[in-house]
Amino acid sequence: MHQNRTFALTAAAILSLAAAGCGDGGDDSGQDAGGNTTLTFVNAQDPGTFDKVIAAFEKANPTIKIKQQAVPFDDLNSTVQSRLGAKDADIDLYDVDEPRLAAFASRGFLEPLDDLRGQAEGKIDPNALKITSYDGKQYAMPRWTSTQLLYFNKDLLAKAKVAAPSSDPAQPITWEQVTADGKKAQDAGAKYGLIFDQVDRYYQLQPLAESLGGGPGLSGADLLQPDVTNAGWTRAFTWYHDIFQSGVAPRGINPEQTPGLFATGGTAFFAGGPWNAAAFDKEKSVDYGVAPFPRFAPGKPATSTDSWSTGISPFSDSKDAAKKFLSYMTIDAAGATATTSNNIPVQKEAFQTYLKNLGAKGERYQQIADIIEQSLGATAVSRPITTGFVDFESVMNKAFADIRNGTDATTRLTQAGQELDRDLAKYRTK
Amino acid sequence: MVVLGSVIAVLFVLPLWWAAVSALRPQRETFATLSPVSLWTLLPRGLTIGNFDRLFDAEFGRALLNSTVVTVATLVIGLAICATAAFALAVLHFPGRGVVFAVMVVSFLIPFDAIAIPLMSIFRDAHLENTYLALVLPGVGNGFAVFLLRGFFLGVPVDLAEAARVEGLGWWGVFWRIYLPLSRPALIGAGLILFVFQWQAYLWPLLIAPDPEMTVAPVAIAQFAGQQGVDFGAIFAGAVLTALVPLLILLFFQRYFTQSVSSSGLK
Q1: Cβ contact (<8 Å) for A75 and B222?
Q2: DSSP letters of A296-342?
Q3: ipTM of the complex
Q4: Which of B30, B31, B206 sits opposite A75 (nearest CB)?
Q5: Does residue A47 sit at the B interface (CB-CB below 8 Å)?
């Protein structure tokens, strides 16, 4: 049902591209008779995420109102693409998944924001500004970033007489050690040794290959040449295959179910994001510790990063008002702080406030804050900025799922490379 | 045979039972009892209405009301349109009748998703976005419902219509006083088709009515699956409530529905 829905939306989005154009439909005249402007902001965040920032902005700008349209998370990209393909002037601002920015910008679905970039320099993390740029132009304003860490169940490790991994941000445990310790924990009664939060998703698995020097999986000037069969990729995904084959990690579990399996106390290690901590605390049934995201023994530390940014539709009738709100939400320290939920802000002052507030919640959260600071500064690897990212991610996620289900990693990566070679050809000619 | 049938029937019911039970227990318990499967997978240890609380805190009640309004309007308007079209195609003789019927049959073979985007552009040009009318309109002209009703109308003896005409009854009277009363099972069957189309509509409401005030139940349920977590408890609760309505309707009307499908197309 869910897949059918996603397929239908994707098909609809593709159809809409035929009708897509790059024309500018906006003349900034989107005011009502009383001189008031209502901006529509399409996003897929949890309810309440933007309530504070919107209230503060509306108070300071009484003639501008912000109306939110919440779209189910899995359908955001395809819905926005379908509506903008039909030049829907009803959307003023929308959330952009950062690795998809290049595809949206190249199709003319994002208004260039170079004037806002000038204001943002020095206030927003330069890496975040870089990954929201394409072809030399700023196309969205970054709001948050992300990282990954390793959670472990203290009771299960103690029962297996396994030493807990260090929480020192500079001393990540190795994946080889995690596998061995996870197996010992299973022998001592744990149901599962290791679970990835976003199993089979490129976002979380990219650092495995990066840790072994395999790169992001794409090479060339426009990052449109597949490079998923090198030694780093092969070794990383042979390990991924083996943890499921040996039963250390469970098959048949969807990403939506994975946090619940750690929260119920039967899993020794869980690789996830800082946001998972709040959910684990809520369940109160697991005593857990935190450690930096592991690396491979012969490799270097690498962690996932990036998150959501916000862009302006080129078909909006109220671009100036939209820029005003976007500037407040992302560049202004007060706005960026008010926007934050469980995510990590990229506005520099808001980031420091976030770390301070996190650390104030207790020792474990201070450790999480330290890991966040270290990983974002030293080990973060962005997803490749390329027009072919959506195709690339789709092919790779299917390959990861097959490898998890028992297909030989070398064979499957070779097949994925051949698929990518065909699929990415259409972008190379443009 | 009876035992085998009963076992198969129970196997069909088990996933629905599990969903209903999961709506009434804490999310943690749903996951904790998943593996290994035991009696506790199917029986709740601690009952809670917390899932329903969160569901209605997110204004699911309004979404359910929107779905109800849209579906009822589609049923009433759609049945009127489909039945009159079917009557014309079955009883009235006019040039091009066969072509019109063929086009109608082809129309219901085209997936709605394939026409959703151009249709959205037309509706937006007419400023119908975020209105009940926009949600109702695509559901009222259902080719399959016309096909079904036409088949049933063809089974009504022509002599009845001719006798009525001789007695001075107009075509409208023939339709209203003879064909409709005789076609109750087919009307219920066609009504169920219209009902299911609207009740489970997802793509179209997402595109044409994205305002929070216009959200329909399937979209509201999907919004509980976020980036950083999925509220399975609320999703189960919403799914159970949303499924209850068609379940009750189907149970009540299943006899007519089966009859309508089996008898349409027979002369």
Answers
A1: yes
A2: -TTS---EE---EEEEE-TT-S-HHHHHHHHHHHHTSHHHHHHH-SS
A3: 0.79
A4: B206
A5: yes
CA–CA separation, B75 and B67 (whole Å)? 12
Rg over alpha carbons for chain A, rounded to the nearest Å, is: 22
Closest CA to B136 of B187, B219, B72: B72
In this complex, do A8 and B223 lie within 8 Å of one another by their Cβ atoms? no
Residue A192 in this model has a pLDDT that exceeds 80: yes
Chain A residue numbers touching B229 (CB-CB < 8 A): 259, 275, 279
Q: Please tell me the least confidently modeled range out of A6-10, B27-31, B154-158.
A: A6-10
Structure tokens given for B215: 């959200």
Which pair of structure tokens corresponds to residue A339? 């926007």
What digits encode the pLDDT tens for the residues A356-388? 999 999 999 999 999 999 999 999 999 999 999
Q: Residue A324: what are its φ and ψ, rounded to 5°?
A: -60, -45
A69 close to B (CB below 8 A): yes
Within A141-214, strands assigned E span 141-142, 144-145, 149-153, 192-196
pLDDT in tens, A331-359: 999 999 998 677 899 999 999 999 999 99
Provide the residue range defining the domain that includes A54.
Answer: 2-142+308-342
CB count within 10 Å of CB B267 equals 7
Q: Rounded to whole angstroms, how far apart are CA atoms A100 and A85?
A: 15
Residue A176 in any domain: the answer is yes
Contact assessment for residue B179 and residue B156, using Cβ atoms and an 8 Å cutoff: yes
Interface contact B184, partner A, CB < 8 A: no
Same domain, A405 and A301: yes
> How far is B134 from B208, CA to CA, in rounded Å?
7
- Give the mean pLDDT of A48-56: 94
Nearest to A76 by CA among B134, B12, B207, B82: B207
**pLDDT at position A25, please?**
39
Residues A136 and A48 both lie in one domain: yes
Could you give the number of structural domains in chain A? 2
Cα A333 to the chain's mean position, in Å? 22
Backbone angles phi, psi at A305, to 5 degrees: -155, -175
Q: Do residues A63 and A179 both lie within one domain? A: no
The verdict on A276 and A320 lying in the same domain is no
Look up residue B103 and give its two tokens: 């086009």
The chain A residue lying nearest B120, using CA atoms, is A86
Q: Which residues of A touch B56 (CB under 8 A)?
A: none
Residues from chain B contacting residue A75 (CB–CB below 8 Å): 206, 222
Q: Could you say which of B207, B222, B225 has the minimum Cβ distance to residue A82?
A: B207
**Whether residue A413 sits in one domain with residue A299:** yes
Residues in B closer than 8 angstroms to A68, CB to CB, are: 212
Collapsed DSSP state (helix, strand, coil) of residue B114: helix
The DSSP output letter for B45 is: S
- Distance (Å, rounded) from C-alpha A312 to C-alpha A326? 8
* Res B236: pLDDT: 94
Long-range CB contacts for residues A417-420, cutoff 8 Å, separation at least 24: A417/A226, A417/A227, A417/A228, A417/A229, A419/A395, A420/A226, A420/A228, A420/A391, A420/A392, A420/A395
Q: What is the pLDDT of residues B99-148, one digit of tens each?
A: 999 998 888 888 888 899 889 999 999 999 999 999 999 999 999 999 99
Best CA proximity match to B213, nearest among B129, B123, B96, B88: B129
Taken in order of first residue, the domains within chain B and their CATH numbers are: 1-48 (no CATH), 58-263 (1.10.3720.10)
- Looking at beta carbons, which pairs linking A285-289 to residues 24 or more positions away fall under 8 Å? A285/B28, A286/A153, A286/A262, A287/A153, A287/A154, A287/A155, A288/A151, A288/A152, A288/A153, A288/A154, A288/A262, A288/A364, A289/A151, A289/A152, A289/A154, A289/A164, A289/A165, A289/A167, A289/A364, A289/A367
A265 near A149, Cβ under 8 Å?
no
**Confidence (pTM):** 0.85
Contact A9 B203 (CB under 8 A): yes
